[in-house]
Write a structure and sequence with these properties.
The protein is an alpha/beta fold. It folds into 2 domains: 124 residues, Rossmann fold, CATH 3.40.50; 79 residues, Winged helix-like DNA-binding domain superfamily/Winged helix DNA-binding domain (Arc Repressor Mutant, subunit A, Orthogonal Bundle), CATH 1.10.10. It contains 10 helices and 7 strands. Strands 2-1-3-6-7 form a 5-stranded parallel sheet, with helices on both faces. A two-stranded antiparallel sheet has the order 4-5. Strand 1, helix 1 and strand 2 form a beta-alpha-beta unit. The two termini are 34 Å apart.
């Protein structure tokens, strides 16, 4: 299995070094670059072409959102996760709209950070359940109403989709529905195929848009 190649961007050297040490100690992560500014981030990402970028919000020459937009404009396949002290919803919403695949607070535990990054590499979104609920509620309010499309999902697939939209991992979905992780993966594959999307995030957005799940249950 190939390592997940990561760039860490943070202007606080001690914090950045701590994150690097944590990730470097994992057999499935490989640090391919570090930076402490927007300009540095763009340079390092262009040179190393990582799978993932852990991005601080506040940088000396701009914001992590600006860096995220720049990176994704040139390297759209890169998974960017904002790692920040800011809890404000407007920044969370802006991060998602900019194309970031995650928004995590710096007080997250090492265990949870590693789990979120591993989940992201498998197609999950690096968000906490409460953040997912707020994002989906916000996007549901701003979405232009459309007639509900008829999408032939089975009852079990709808159950899996409801939990997927809530941010549950395959393991958590399996535990909740008392089915194996392998079975969950099969259901997710069929859901993505039927919805004609490629990622869990796209499936979640389409599910909300077409009222396939209940937002009051998230």
């Amino acid at each position: 299995m190939d390592s997940i190649r990561i760039v860490v961007v943070d202007d606080h050297t001690i914090l950045r070094d701590g994150i690097v040490s944590l990730l470097d100690a994992q057999p499935d992560f490989e640090i391919v670059g570090v930076a402490g500014s927007v300009a540095g981030a763009l340079e390092v990402v262009a040179a190393s072409r990582p799978d993932m970028v852990l991005m601080d919000y506040g940088l000396p020459d701009g914001t992590g959102l600006e860096a995220t937009k720049e990176i994704l404009a040139f390297f759209p396949e890169t998974n960017v996760v904002l790692l920040t002290v800011h809890e404000e919803d407007d920044l969370l919403f802006s991060a998602v709209r900019s194309g970031a695949k995650g928004y995590l607070l710096k007080n997250i535990s090492a265990k949870d950070l590693l789990a979120k990054l591993r989940g992201l590499s498998q197609g999950d979104i690096a968000l906490l359940p409460a953040q997912t609920k707020r994002i989906l509620s916000e996007f549901a309010k701003t979405e232009t109403p459309n007639p509900k499309e008829e999408i032939p999902l089975t009852d079990r697939e709808l159950e899996v989709l409801q939990l997927l939209v809530a941010g549950a991992t395959n393991r958590a979905i399996g535990a909740k529905l008392h089915i194996s992780v392998h079975t969950v993966k099969n259901h997710v594959h069929h859901i993505l195929d039927k919805l004609n999307v490629e990622t869990r995030r796209q499936a979640a957005e389409l599910a909300i848009k077409n009222q396939l799940v209940r937002t009051d249950k998230l």
